[in-house]
Amino acid sequence: MNVKRMAVGLAACALATSAVFAQQPAPQPNPMDNVPDKMPFDIPYGTPISLEHAQAAVAAAVNESKKRGWKLNVALVDSGGNLVAFARMDGAQIASVAISEHKARAAATFRRETKAFEAGIQGGNNYLITLDGVIGSRGGIPLVQDGKLIGAIGCSGGTGSQDEVVCKVGAATVK
Predict the structure, then answer these.
(1) What ranges do the domains of the chain cover?
(2) CA separation for the pair 11, 140 (Å, rounded)
(3) Closest CA to 107 of 74, 139, 145
(4) In the predicted model, is pLDDT for residue 59 greater than 60?
(5) Which of 118, 125, 137, 162 is the most exposed place for a label (fewest CB within 10 A)?
(6) Is a pLDDT exceeding 80 seen at residue 26?
């Protein structure tokens, strides 16, 4: 009798185990293994932005920020990520001085908006946080003139979306 029960039990286990293995989905391809045909964010470097143009872009961003009642820090770097112009509005968060510079530098050196890092990290691409100089917060915009990168602008002190809105106004002065 015990042998019979044991045989029935083993058969039930074997049946349950085979059902579990049969229900396993096929492995899905990893999107990170996709090899694009073209290089992403392949913007050539141009002549670094002039001080005059940098100051005009910062002024436009500050004016937009004032119009909206936001107190921000605005940094503008050249194509190599070197600070060219900066403005700290009265009452702007002190920690955001370095953050605005970091956003501008990341946008210039990686040749993409910092929003791309924010989206990538939120999408599960956690390897991005291991890259030197990355900042996963929107508000860093590359400045492109005649198809070439000449610098980048970074804003900080508000929410990421506020920083981004103001940066885009400053970036729009570069044509």
Answers:
(1) 2-33, 51-171
(2) 63
(3) 139
(4) yes
(5) 125
(6) no
- Please indicate whether residue 38 or residue 10 has the higher confidence score (pLDDT): 38
The amino acid present at 66, given as its one-letter code, is K
The contacts of residue 94 (CB under 8 Å, 6+ apart) are none
- For residue 70, the model assigns a pLDDT of 98
Contact residues for 77 (Cβ-Cβ < 8 A; gap 6+) = 83, 84, 101, 104, 105, 108, 151, 152, 153, 154
The tokens describing 72, both together, are: 């921000």
The residues, ordered by sequence, that sit 6+ positions from 86 with a Cβ below 8 Å of its Cβ are 58, 73, 74, 75, 76, 97, 100, 101
Whether domain 51-171 has CATH 3.30.450.150: yes
Residue 87 has a CB neighbour count (10 Å cut-off) of: 19
Instruction: Give the whole-angstrom CA distance, residue 23 versus residue 110.
Output: 43
pLDDT digits (tens, 9 = 90+) for 94-120: 999 999 999 999 999 999 999 999 999
The answer to whether the CB of 133 falls within 8 A of the CB of 98 is: no
The distance of Cα 142 from the centroid of its chain, to the nearest Å, equals: 12
Confidence (pTM): 0.80
pLDDT value for 7: 57
* Cα 113 from Cα 97, distance rounded (Å): 18
